[in-house]
Specification:
Oligomer: single chain
Strand content: 15-25%
CATH class of the domain at 294-541: Alpha Beta
Number of helices: 18
Shape: flat
Helix content: 40-55%
Low-confidence stretches: 39-59, 113-122, 226-231
Number of strands: 15
Structural class: alpha/beta
Mean pLDDT: 79
Largest sheet: 6 strands, antiparallel
CATH topology of the domain at 294-541: Spore Coat Polysaccharide Biosynthesis Protein SpsA, Chain A
Distance between the termini: 110 Å
């Protein structure tokens, strides 16, 4: 009885504290809402003082109106974000209220006397026993599943494989380095683990291995004499020699770690296995892309012939197959401007396409500046932007991928496109080069995944504006896309980075201007080298004189065969 009274007093105290906290939270939210939505009390003049009056000397041109519209849209988006946060907080308050209600009901039940509690306990005893049994059964099933995963993996015995391509290779690692085979273009044969998940993974494995070494099991204690057990060393990270790890994606990750033993030629080997659990359904949602318009933003300077090729692809895919697109071309300078305008007008008449905007800037070309101007020029509400170049080829499948992987306020999509090598080197001579549509083959000798490029991206205009847009001080080629990419990485938005089977970078000869700063010039030259050919093709070019000499020698030795 005394225990029940103390329990009731404790619960009443807890309920009163939680109620007070909820009241304080509601007051804070109301105050925050009033402070956000009310006019700012600062040294800045109010909006009525900023707007131009008759007879004043304040600017009234279109640029000033655009600035006001931009500010108004930013405030509207900010207020919308606050409303969403308040709505979420209200939902949390409702959830806490339900929890309080349940606690109050529990208190009432506890105060009804031992007789009723005894009746209630008798009724629920069977139910509670069933829940405990169910929890034990689930835990037993999970342990059995994990043991099955371990037995299926290649840990103690091998598996018969069809050929050398089916082998899952190991990666080796030390305290400071990881040595890997599957590098890609942004990874190195030897590197420090840059990604946090990789560092945490290897750190956890090493910590568990040291704990296991320094806490011997009872079975080990039975085998080892008492004298040796008392003098056994304490293992530290400095005793770690090397490790190996590999992942079978359907089973788990295997780790083999080697430590120095007590004697000079003695080692300790630990084998750890992280089994993958069963699949869990996280989300099942319906996604309707019917009304999602994509606004292509294309910066351009000269290159009228490439623009014709781009518009041929745009007409066939975007206009005739998809139909939910807008095209914004930002042109720098006046040279070849008439050809670009003529191409747009011809396509417009041919397929009755009116959803395009042509903007002209009489200034030096800057890709970041062009994309920024094109994105801000749209006044039709929040739209999905696709930053694109004229040497990009895309399919209708990519447009759907773009729509599905970008979400305003939540996700931006940075696809990895397949970059084409020089067709002249691939097919031997210009006469043997097939049409563009037939060149789009994803093979080792035809191209590579351009995972060092971040220029092509799908993101909503609201996210682009809120993140601050491009760094328009960057002139010429490269750099602006990486700055924008890093802004998103530093934000709370989810960055979706994945290879896209429907997005291609067509080969074109690259010219790196001498006036570029050293870092931009180095980036440009690296990109130029990557674009030319595969490792094997470049090797054949480098040794072509030696190969030709060998063929001539063979021809002289065997004249009859020729």
């Amino acid at each position: 009885m005394l225990h029940a009274v103390m329990l009731r007093r404790g619960l009443l105290t807890w309920v009163s504290r939680v109620g007070g906290l909820l009241v304080l939270l509601c007051c804070s939210l109301s105050l925050l809402y009033l402070m956000t939505c009310s006019p700012p009390h600062s040294n800045n003049p109010p909006l009525s003082h900023v707007l131009p009056h008759a007879g004043s000397n304040r600017p009234t041109g279109p640029s000033y109106q655009m600035l006001l519209q931009e500010r108004e849209e930013q405030h509207r988006l900010y207020i919308s974000s606050l409303k969403k946060e308040i709505s979420q907080l209200k939902e949390d308050l409702q959830e806490r209220s339900l929890q309080l209600k349940k606690v109050q009901e529990t208190l009432k039940t506890a105060s009804n006397g031992p007789a009723e509690r005894q009746d209630w306990g008798t009724e629920t005893q069977g139910e509670g026993f069933g829940e405990v049994q169910g929890a034990k059964s689930q835990q037993s099933d999970l342990q059995e599943f994990l043991r099955t995963q371990l037995s299926k993996a290649e840990v103690t015995t091998g598996t018969r494989l069809p050929n050398e391509y089916a082998v899952v290779p190991f990666e080796s690692f030390t305290l400071q380095r990881v040595y890997q085979l599957e590098m890609g273009l942004t990874r190195h044969p030897e590197e420090k683990p840059v990604r946090k998940d990789k560092r945490d993974e290897l750190g956890e494995v090493l910590e568990m291995a040291l704990h296991s070494l320094n806490t011997p099991s009872s079975q080990q204690d039975n085998r080892v004499p008492l004298e040796k057990a008392q003098t056994s060393k304490v293992y530290t990270p400095s005793d770690f020699v090397e490790g190996m790890t590999r992942t079978e994606r359907d089973k788990g990750t295997l780790y083999e770690l080697t430590f120095r033993g007590e004697a000079s030629h003695e080692f300790r080997r630990l084998v750890l296995f992280r089994p993958f659990g069963p699949l869990l359904k996280v989300k099942n949602e319906r996604m309707d892309t019917t009304n999602i318009l994509i606004n292509f933003i294309v910066p351009l300077s000269r290159r009228a012939d490439k623009f014709k090729q781009f518009m041929h692809n745009f007409r066939e895919v975007c206009v005739r197959q998809d139909g939910r697109v807008h095209l914004t071309v930002v042109y720098f300078g006046k040279e070849q401007m008439s050809e670009v305008r003529s191409t747009l007008e011809n396509i417009s008449r041919e397929v009755n396409f009116k959803n395009y905007t042509l903007l002209q800037l009489d200034e030096e070309f800057s890709r970041g500046r062009g994309l920024d101007v094109g994105a801000r020029a749209w006044k039709g509400g929040n739209v999905l932007l696709f930053f694109c170049d004229v040497d990009i080829y895309f399919t209708a499948d990519f447009l759907n991928t773009c729509r599905l992987n970008a979400q305003p306020g939540k996700k931006v999509f940075y696809p990895v496109l397949f970059s084409q090598y020089n067709p002249t080197l691939i097919y031997g001579s210009p006469e043997h080069i097939p049409p563009v549509e037939q060149q789009l083959v994803m093979k080792k000798d035809t191209g590579f995944w351009r995972d060092f490029g971040f220029g092509m991206t799908c993101q909503y205009r609201s996210d682009f504006i809120n993140i601050g847009g491009f760094d328009i001080d960057i002139k010429g080629w490269g750099g602006e896309d990486v700055h924008l990419y890093r802004k998103y990485l530093h934000s709370s938005l989810l960055v979706v980075r994945a290879p896209s089977r429907g997005l291609f970078h067509l080969w074109h000869e690259k010219h790196c201007a001498d006036e570029l700063p050293p870092d931009q010039y180095r980036m440009c030259m690296q990109s130029k080298a990557m674009n030319e050919a595969s490792h094997g093709q470049l090797g054949m070019l480098f040794f072509r004189h030696e190969i030709e000499a060998h063929l001539r020698k063979q021809k002289q030795q065997n004249p009859k065969k020729t």
